[in-house]
């Protein structure tokens, strides 16, 4: 199958990721940090090394400020709900995923108000609109780094600056960009960074990461064994144990480490350029097909490797099924768990057909997809 | 290394578990249930099949009542905090793990009262003590199936009956028994069952399970993309989507499926008998060493493959280190995240040295451990 669903999860992974997981499972899969034997120490050390790799990638100074979660959604929930209290106000945008919007909407019932800033019909955010919505009780701004619908890169630098100037915490959802685009938490002024392991970072499913800037008070929502302060019936409040109760996802964490190591070895610039090239290549080819509508701004440099299209007014799910069944091409159609983004770009009813590329996507695969789309357009015409 | 830390995580896993994970990662690691292409369907189907295997193992009628979590601690937190409200009362025991005690203690701040019933010095629970503590507002009884410190099997049948007779929900923490001892949720009257994937069920770390009996209202604590009702900004309330936001741990889930399939193929009775035999074998050998104190009731039939000991008044951590460094034997010393259990058996200061066996433990390994313990005792004497 030709796999164009890398925005959901990257596939395939580098071979070293499989090898690392297998080697870990076979040789060192003890419970980390909870026992005094070699294999447990080894597992604990492996986890610490992945915290360090994350620090290297995102310019984080303290590895203990890295919290492992079960996915980026878990990270976003922890950040949003751990920070916001009755009376607080939060600003986000209409291009966010339901992993941001649903927790924020749920907090309305707890006295946390929100403003969802509209992006334009291309999914582009004007940072001035964020500034305009700041109130005296605005505590947090949440912004995706790139839309999972249109691939539009958001102005995190400008919004980070606005947040800093106004003493507002800044949470970035880097689900579509981590591992592909450089993110420097110090330079951009990111206070909280939510990541999935299994997308651009080339790890496997079942793991997320939340970076919490030192000194930010985030509630915890789970208590349990932490392998620390075992004599106490209250949760230890130090990092990262406070937020990491129970046995961690050690295989997932070592897989993430292998993914990051692969990225560092290849060079993120090379990965990023390759994905930009593939995106541009695809867009330039489909622009020649008159029935195809391409959403988003699609200017290279402001577009991640995620492209949403439609064929005339055809139902996006039907075209998605056709691509799968007749051409063995896997895409994702529908609303992509981001209903307001589809309202923003005018596709709430039709949905879109989303093509998302990865570092291992080939030009040949894109050519096959373009042929398939042409063939579908022809059959509809005829 | 000789690995006697199976109560923390079982090691090694059956080869089929490694093969299944690797095959999944290499061939079908799409994002399940979120896209309309073959590989996504395949991943979704694989997850559903593991729900069915869990149903088969625990006599659960509806696979949709199975919720995947990040570990048993996550399951316990969800069950305890999702159920208990201001004004409710919960009963548990002094032999519980911090994954039960810490959430229950945290709820004191939210108006939920608790009674922690004392077990005797062998860690044995008298079910009548539970009955005596029932109040008009008692909503939940939480009980571990077997102590992670002494291996003592708890009377879940009797307590289940007491819970049913009094219309109280019954939550069982089966961290030490799932996959080894038969658990029939219908027969025992279990309303909520919390499990880790990576212990007796022979899956890998990073996954837990919570079974919720149909009709029980449990709050959810996270919202996000569920691949369902994407057009809505509120969390869908149907099972299991309500509790499973974001990308699931698909590799962990398929590994669990392989572990359960291995158990079903071997026969749980055979596994259970083998672990009982190993435990009896170990206990009978160390009984001959006068300096060794063995905790718990250690009657075969009421003892899981977890044995806590001490050598005279020696510090348990030092003996643990010695076993690791001088004999290459991995055990777990200290308080095992269960401080009240150690208070119950009188080892809160000293801790214990815990030997925990698995299906793949050999008699030879146990003999080596017995020799090591003799040697340590001799050196202390001398």
TrEMBL record, chains A, B:
Its cofactor is pyridoxal 5'-phosphate. It catalyses: (sulfur carrier)-H + L-cysteine = (sulfur carrier)-SH + L-alanine. One of its GO terms (biological process) is cysteine metabolic process. PANTHER family: CYSTEINE DESULFURASE, ISOPENICILLIN N EPIMERASE. One of its GO terms (molecular function) is cysteine desulfurase activity. Keywords: Pyridoxal phosphate, Transferase. It is an enzyme of class 2 (transferase). Its EC number is 2.8.1.7. InterPro entries: Aminotrans_V_dom, Cys_dSase-rel_unknwn_funct, Cys_dSase_SufS, Cysteine_dSase, PyrdxlP-dep_Trfase, PyrdxlP-dep_Trfase_major, PyrdxlP-dep_Trfase_small. This is cysteine desulfurase. Residues 2-368 form the Aminotransferase class V domain. Belongs to the class-V pyridoxal-phosphate-dependent aminotransferase family. Csd subfamily.
């Amino acid at each position: 199958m030709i796999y164009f669903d890398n925005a959901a999860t990257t596939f395939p992974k580098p071979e070293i990721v499989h090898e690392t997981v297998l080697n870990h499972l076979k040789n060192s899969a003890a419970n980390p940090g909870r026992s005094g034997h070699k294999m447990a120490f080894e597992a604990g050390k492996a986890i610490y090394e992945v915290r360090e790799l994350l620090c290297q990638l995102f310019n984080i100074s303290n590895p203990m400020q890295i919290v492992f979660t079960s996915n980026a959604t878990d990270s976003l929930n922890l950040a949003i709900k751990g920070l916001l209290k009755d009376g607080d106000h939060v600003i986000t945008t209409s291009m966010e995923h339901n992993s941001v919007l649903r927790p924020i909407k749920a907090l309305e019932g707890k006295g946390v108000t929100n403003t969802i800033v509209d992006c334009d019909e291309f999914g582009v955010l004007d940072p001035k609109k964020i500034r305009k919505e700041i109130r005296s009780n605005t505590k947090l701004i949440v912004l995706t780094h790139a839309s999972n619908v249109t691939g539009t890169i958001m102005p995190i630098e400008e919004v980070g600056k606005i947040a800093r100037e106004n003493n507002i915490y800044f949470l970035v959802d880097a689900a579509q960009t981590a591992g592909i685009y450089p993110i420097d938490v110090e330079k951009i002024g990111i206070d909280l960074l939510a990541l999935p392991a299994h997308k651009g970072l080339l790890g496997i499913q079942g793991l997320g990461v939340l970076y919490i800037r030192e000194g930010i008070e985030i509630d915890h929502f789970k208590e349990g064994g932490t392998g620390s302060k075992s004599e106490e019936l209250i949760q230890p409040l130090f990092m990262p144990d406070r937020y990491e109760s129970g046995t961690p996802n050690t295989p997932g964490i070592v897989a993430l480490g292998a993914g990051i190591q692969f990225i560092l070895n290849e060079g993120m610039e090379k990965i990023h350029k390759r994905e930009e090239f593939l995106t541009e290549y695809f867009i330039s080819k489909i622009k020649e097909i008159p029935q195809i509508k391409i959403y988003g701004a699609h200017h290279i440099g402001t577009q991640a490797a995620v492209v949403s299209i439609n064929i005339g007014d055809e139902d996006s799910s039907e075209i998605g099924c056709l691509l799968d069944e007749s051409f063995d091409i896997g895409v994702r159609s529908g609303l992509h768990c981001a209903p307001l983004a589809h309202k923003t770009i005018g596709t709430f009813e039709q949905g879109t057909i989303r093509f998302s590329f990865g570092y291992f996507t080939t030009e040949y695969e894109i050519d096959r997809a373009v042929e398939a789309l042409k063939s579908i357009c022809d059959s509809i015409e005829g």
